[in-house]
Amino acid sequence: MNSELIVVSNRLPYYQNKKKVWKRAAGGLINAVEPIVIESKGTWIGWDGNDSKQLTQYQVNQLSCETRQLPDSYKINCVPLTKEEASIYYDHFCNETLWALFHYFFEKCSINEESWKMYKIINERFAEIISQTAAKGASVWIHDYHLMLVPRYLKLLRPELDMHFFLHTPFPHIDIYSILPWGREILHSLLQCSSVGFHHESYLSNFRGAAKRLNVETNDCQTFTNPISIDFELFDTASRSHIVQTKQSAFKESMGNIQILLSIDRIDYSKGIKERLLAIESLLKSRPDLIEKFVYYQLTIPSRENVGSYQELKKEVDELVGRINGSYATEKWAPIHYHYGTKSFEQLTAIYLASDICLVTPLRDGMNLVCKEFIAAHSDEKGVLILSQFAGAISEINDCLAANPYSINNLKLAIETALEMPEPERTDRMKNMRSSISKHNIHHWWKICRKYFKLYPRIGILK
């Protein structure tokens, strides 16, 4: 049976490892959107990360998955991509061109005609599979910069479909966006949708400004802002469970039962990982009395390992961690604990709960959900959040410590303030942040987004 709600993203929420066992992928988009697909009994279309030439379809509860119990109420369709196609479309155009440009790292942006051609080919392939899957008049919800040409191709194939798009990155100012030779073509495609959503008012303003400057008709497309959120109740409930409480106690003990500073990022130059490490180094140099008083735990999730700039960044981070630990470690203590990999949901929640301070300090970020997950996991109403003024989430979270990650000294002072913040102030700030995020949760986000869908309110009756 064809689905009334189709969610489309570059990657699926599940992938097969080398042993052909299905695992749940990491990522804020997956955590945010999957509850909606489950509730709607819809279909998720995307790539599973494998080298493939043939479309495959699965009922999610039939997958052999080692990570957690799988929902039984939605289907996934795997778009086939060969290894060569993925390299050109994903590694080169999506990451070296669009990601770099949309995050204002235009000096890292590569403009290449061949990768643009492959981007068009893959977007058209996605559109063809959506066309084959969608019920008559279905709502199709397309996500993120990887698939910005899908609306154009899908409009030609199935003009009656109710198309919507949500961008999870910043949309750059026209002076940056105009570097892209195909910018007008992309805007024209996006404006074929019934709605286009953004996380922040500045991204929407930039989008409208680009359409106006490049003289692209907006048609009847409605554009709006709606900051994405998380399933607050999921993290809050998990943090109170026996298994998470046990794991968080064990984690605190393994860190020496001292204050824990936490960061969780993909390995990416936009995340400000090097700048944070330099701030920690600067703090230890200026405040030797803090040696053995705290530990910094950096969980770094592998990402885009085939892209040269990411390989170089990992090397630089590894060397920086080694330098800091080599300079300041004692017989019983090392300042930096660096983990490169992923964690289960329960372990991740336990790490959030165990950590006293969370540093979310990207140089530029569309939203960032780590900060919201940290808040939701702190059912003990403790914990301090240091948040970059360049993260989309800064407009929502008033009781964080705002920091400028481009200034090592500013970042150092924010860390120092957090370490020495009195307990009553920590509790007051965390209570306020939890109140805000619990109200503006993923269900609230979906409630606003779905108002633009023709099938509203039939699909996804969430809280």
UniProtKB/TrEMBL annotation:
Keyword Signal recorded: no
One Pfam family recorded for the sequence: Glyco_transf_20
EC number: 2.4.1.15
Annotated keywords: Glycosyltransferase, Transferase
Protein name per UniProt: Alpha,alpha-trehalose-phosphate synthase
Gene3D superfamilies: Glycogen Phosphorylase B (3.40.50.2000)
Entry's family note: Belongs to the glycosyltransferase 20 family.
Record field: transmembrane: none
CDD domains reported in the protein's UniProt record: GT20_TPS (cd03788)
Organism: Waddlia chondrophila (strain ATCC VR-1470 / WSU 86-1044)
GO molecular function terms listed in the Swiss-Prot or TrEMBL record: alpha,alpha-trehalose-phosphate synthase (UDP-forming) activity
SUPFAM superfamilies: UDP-Glycosyltransferase/glycogen phosphorylase
InterPro entries attached to this UniProt entry: Glyco_trans_20 (IPR001830)
Keyword Metal-binding on entry: no
Domain of life: Bacteria
GO biological process: trehalose biosynthetic process
Coiled-coil segments: none
